[in-house]
Amino acid sequence: MSNSLNPVNLTKPMNNILTFDIEEWFHANYDDVKPDRSKGSSFRAHMDTLLQMCSDAGCKATFFTLGCIGEDYPDIVQAIAREGHDVASHGYAHELAYKQTREGFRADVQKSIDILENLTGTKVQGYRAPSWSIVESNHHYLEVLEEMGLIYDASIFPVKTFLYGIPTAPTEIHKPIVNGRELHLYEIPMSVMRAAGRNIGYSGGFYFRFFPEMIIRKAIQSANRQGKSSIVYLHPREIDPKEHQLELPFKERFIHYYNVKGTKAKLEHMLKDFAFTSISEHLSKAYG
Known about the structure:
Layout: H1 8-11, E1 15-22, H2 43-57, E2 62-65, H3 67-72, H4 74-82, E3 86-89, H5 102-120, E4 126-127, H6 142-147, E5 152-153, E6 177-178, E7 181-182, E8 186-187, E9 192-195, E10 198-201, H7 205-210, H8 213-225, E11 231-234, H9 250-257, H10 263-273, E12 275-277, H11 279-287
Parallel strand pairs: 1-2, 1-11, 1-12, 2-3, 4-5, 5-8
Antiparallel strand pairs: 6-7, 9-10
């Protein structure tokens, strides 16, 4: 049941942005963790659920998809495109962008794009780095995406954590400046709110699972009142507490899996009470 303090008619007019990072439960970047992929997965069921949720809500989304997912599940990638959603690149094999050379990064993104475009017959317009791995040291890699003809990037998280983030990055959609030049590329930074003098995420991944629904609602409503869209991002594994899990140290396990059991219902409530669209539709309406 939706929170009665947040009626639909107060929230529906403003379009927010819905995104998913399409990968398996074992796609992660922990050097000492070697997942047993022979366990299988419920990936197909998760994708059926996410697509049905979007259909029920009447919304479009952007699916940042690994190239290797396209190889393993070509029919799922085709289903995403067939239902009118964005199929965007998440790289090929979930490698951290800041651990790749510039040319290695280019090859990785291009490999994923080739796979996805061959499956869907449509141009890939955007990219999101695995684990938000465009940071200050490799921010110039955005030039590569521009050179490849992409329209947008969604890799920047304007926070500072031990894993990722550019805390000084702009918090609104913008064209980034690299080496003194404004790129012909839109940056779609992850949504943040201000708390204790710093930026904090609230509407995706760990933050979506961690914060109570009321806090997320108030943050989205606050952004919408300012004419800003909030961006939600989730992974397929986050809607299923029964999916296989990585063996991780306490801190990493907490970040990776806290409150997975509540994610699906929370997402259903958000889709019911807020309007969402894909990145490409948002850019088309906002910027022409």
